[in-house]
Amino acid sequence: MVVLGIETSCDETAAAVIRRTAEGQGEILAERVLSQDDDHAPFGGVVPEIAARAHVAHLDRLISEAMQRSGLTFGDLDGIAATAGPGLIGGLLVGLTTGRAIAQVHDLPILPINHLEGHALTARLTDGIAFPYLLLLVSGGHTQLLIIEDVGRYVRLGTTIDDALGEAFDKTAKLLGLGYPGGPQVERRAREGDPTRFAFPRPMLGREGCDFSFSGLKTAVRRAVQAAMPVTEQDIADICASFQAAITDCIVDRLRGAMRLFQQRYPDAAAPNVVVAGGVAANSSLRQAMLDEAAKAGFGVSIPPLRLCTDNAVMIAWAGAERLARGLTDTGTLTARPRWPLDPHAAPAIGAGVKA
Ligand code: KG4
Ligand code: ZN
Fold first, then answer.
1. Which one of 114, 257, 284, 353 has the lowest number of neighbouring Cβ atoms within 10 Å?
2. Strand, helix or coil at 284?
3. Per residue in 287-346, pLDDT tens?
4. Distance 279 CA to ligand 1 centre (A)
């Protein structure tokens, strides 16, 4: 099964070609990603209009390059997978329309893929993780805990009720004048800081369920910055370290609850796994805390290589191949869907926007 994947839901334009064997093993034949970070950096966040135009400008070339590098022609493909949602409507339309056109010309099936399903299934390509497993998705647009039961069967345990975790990092960085994207800068500054200097709140800690909230933390950071004005390099480091300590506590607490729920649902699961995906999975302090917490509960941890944790087209192609292999070609939509929860039974989270 050879599939071309297209990803344009946010600020990465990407194309990839992958192969899935009948036994379920994956091989990446070619991958191309163009990050638009520099286009959006002056605005401190993703500007939808700029993102859509950049996808139009670059997608065709990236697809050609991916095909060339794979050494295959469109005629060798078994299907085209394109992200149909959730995400920014302009970008989704660019990717889906392009995928649809190629599929029509070459008489191939088009698979409109849920971006979150791409993140959810990547660890099967990279580490051969077996169903069911727990997924912690922490990116600039999403913060969710899900049980991945099978292809197309997802149970959402929790989501953010306001900001996504990556967004919280980006906003903290912005308040401190550290540039965009902010996560890596906050992590770097936190290394020289005192994580105990500021007693930032730990929203949702100890509460029932697995939902997240970061807006209270953001307000507390803003107040700390204002009170410390003019901020010194040490103040910046201490705020970053204290912020990181607070979010780490929150994530660990939510993960603990999710592992408990997973074990209740699958009491016989031997050696269950937690898969971590999304750009914030790059954060070493968070990774270490999750590894420790998972080990305590008897869970293994799988974190795909960072380039496959952040937005990419390999994951979309792979999700398409997993669907094709099972005959699950009806993904539930034919058009772009800015909002598209993976678990249709999960209650919409107020304030979570496209992140739900
Ligand atoms: O998955 P991703 O590339 O795409 C989007 O959701 O757009 O995630 C990007 C997010 C950004 O918010 C960025 O600040 C955050 O991941 N991030 C980090 C780190 N590296 C990237 N957050 C914390 N620590 C990091 N080292
Ligand atoms: Zn993503």
1. 284
2. helix
3. 999 999 999 999 999 999 999 999 999 999 999 999 999 999 999 998 999 999 999 898
4. 4
Judge: domain 133-302, CATH 3.30.420.40. yes
What whole-number distance in Å separates Cα of residue 95 and Cα of residue 82?
6
pLDDT tens digit sequence for 176-192: 999 888 999 999 999 99
Ligand 1 interacting residues, C-beta cut-off 6 A: 10-11, 139-141, 166, 169-170, 181-184, 187, 278-280, 282-283, 310-311
C-beta separation of 80 from 46 below 8 A: no
Rg of the chain over CA atoms, in angstroms?
A: 20
- Domain range annotation of the chain: 2-127+310-355, 133-302
Say how far apart CA 346 and CA 343 lie, in whole Å. 6
Q: Is the dihedral of CA 246, 248, 253, 255 positive or negative?
A: positive
Task: Specify whether the CB–CB gap between 18 and 321 falls below 8 A.
Answer: yes
Is the distance from CB of 334 to CB of 326 less than 8 angstroms? no
Q: Return d(Cα 356, Cα 353) in angstroms, integer.
A: 6
Query: Which ligand is the nearest neighbour of the Cα of 166?
Result: 1
Spans of the chain, pLDDT less than 50? 353-356
Peptide bond into 230 cis (omega under 30): yes
179 CB-near residues (< 8 Å, 6+ apart): 41, 173, 185
Fold of 2-127+310-355: Nucleotidyltransferase; domain 5 (3.30.420)
